[in-house]
Amino acid sequence: IYGDAGRLQQVAWNLLSNAIKFTADGGQVKVAIRKVESAIACKLESGENLSPVAVEIEVSDTGEGIDPEFLPRVFDRFSQADSTTTRSHNGLGLGLAIVRHLVELHGGTVQAESAGKGQGARFFVRLPVKQPDGNSALYVARKKNLPIREKRPIAPVPEFTASTNFSGLRVLVVDGDWDSLEFARVVLEGCRAEVETAESAREALEAIQGRVPHILAIDIRMQPEDGCCLLQQMRAIAGSEIPAVALTANTRVEERVRALREGFQLHLPKPIDPAELTAVVANLVARHHLDS
Predict the structure, then answer these.
(1) How far is residue 246's CA from residue 266's CA, in Å, rounded to a whole number?
(2) How many whole angstroms separate alpha carbon 160 and alpha carbon 277?
(3) Number of folded domains in the chain?
(4) Quick one: pLDDT at residue 211?
């Protein structure tokens, strides 16, 4: 598989965590991995073809299952407050949205199946396999079933790279909702940014007294501390020139105007869209001539 081992580990962990969360004591969670024929048609950035074979990871559980009406939206981003579209337990959060985001960045696909509530669920991740060189000794040996003495590669496998590169850029994300915080972190770290997170005003103020970030992203509806007031406190410590993005689930025009009046440069609606988040950060980098 051509990809980032750390990110793929996070995919597996999120699927397992989700299965365990919705399976009661005495239930079962199973993991299987297999080779399957691939319908994934894409190429690596280097132009190399992908194999017609894919690796499929299946995580299944005997837990609560998924309502058929909700199944098509199970990988969508939503806040845990949206209890009408969850499998209970106050929501699925963004763990599955992160899975889809990371899998699609690797050129793969993800799918969920469930017979309904109380019937358990199955999640399938398919990842493309790099097409082997038809002239390589290893490929020929395998095709002819010859004995193979494998050696470790003399060079590391190239790391997966996102199309947007924020290397050297420091971003501090402040959000009282852990799932939203984690999703923003995953997206920005996937673009090589250095991301620090804070779930409260206290954590944010402590963080900014250390290494000053280039960009702030703050949920303006945080409780009990208002995000707009927090921005003023943070700028009083680290300088008024730090650009900031307002995060909010309230998409009304009045909310956007309030954010801009309070000193935020840009407004980003929640749930966060990866493309919008990277575009907003790139905009601030260019606008403020930040080193990244």
Answers:
(1) 6
(2) 20
(3) 2
(4) 86
Q: How far apart are CA 228 and CA 207, in angstroms?
A: 17
Helices (H), 29-144: 95-105, 137-143
Rounded to 5°, the CA angle 94-97-102 comes to 125
Whole-number pLDDT of residue 45: 47
* Paired tokens of 68: 């058929």
CATH code assigned at 53: 3.30.565.10
Starting at the edge strand that comes first in sequence, how are the strands of the sheet with 244-248 ordered? Answer: 194-198, 170-174, 215-219, 244-248, 266-269
Nearest by Cα to 32 from 2, 61, 75 = 61
Question: Which residue type occupies 286?
Answer: A
Range of lowest pLDDT (31-40, 102-111, 127-136, 173-182): 127-136
Together in a domain, 110 and 16: yes
pTM, rounded to two decimals: 0.59
Q: How far apart are CA 43 and CA 107, in angstroms?
A: 9
Angle between helices 201-208 and 227-238 (to 10 degrees): 20
Each residue's pLDDT tens digit, 45-70: 445 555 567 899 999 999 999 888 88
